[in-house]
Amino acid sequence: MVIAINNLPPDTPAEEVSRLFAGDSRIESIRFSHDGNADSNMAIVRFQDMGRVELNRHVRRLNNHFYQNRQLRAYAPLFFR
């Protein structure tokens, strides 16, 4: 399962993204993309063994959450490779 977090500062390290999930040990990988906007970063966080209900709880908690004076946008795409 995957969660995408938009509007992160461009210099955000993977460790900081992991802290947004309280260091959840099920994080499989964290990738970054800043396609089209060098001032904003998107993190793609892939989890192993996490159900849709728990994933949606994380999305609701992080969506509109403020991080370093930026309002984050989080969503869980249904289909992602």
Describe this structure in words.
There is one protein chain. The chain has 81 residues and is an alpha+beta fold. The chain is 22% helix and 35% strand. It has 2 helices and 6 strands; from the N terminus they run βαββαβββ. The strands form 2 sheets. A 4-stranded antiparallel beta sheet has the order 2-3-1-6, covered by helices on one side. It has a two-stranded antiparallel ribbon with strand order 4-5. The radius of gyration is 12 Å and the shape is globular.
C-alpha end-to-end distance: 10 Å
Basic shape: globular
- Into which percent range does the helicity of residues fall? 10-25%
Q: How can the largest sheet be summarized? A: 4 strands, antiparallel
Helical run tally: 2
Report the structural category. alpha+beta
What strand order characterises the main sheet?
2-3-1-6
Average pLDDT confidence is 90
Number of strands: 6
Low-confidence stretches: none
Radius of gyration computed on alpha carbons: 12 Å
Taken as a percent bin, the fraction of beta residues is 25-35%
What is the string of helix and strand elements?
EHEEHEEE
What's the structural blueprint in terms of helices and strands?
Blueprint: E1 2-8, H1 14-20, E2 27-33, E3 41-47, H2 52-62, E4 66-67, E5 70-71, E6 73-75
Antiparallel strand pairs: 1-3, 1-6, 2-3, 4-5
Keywords:
alpha+beta, two-stranded antiparallel sheet, 2 helices, 6 strands, 22% helix
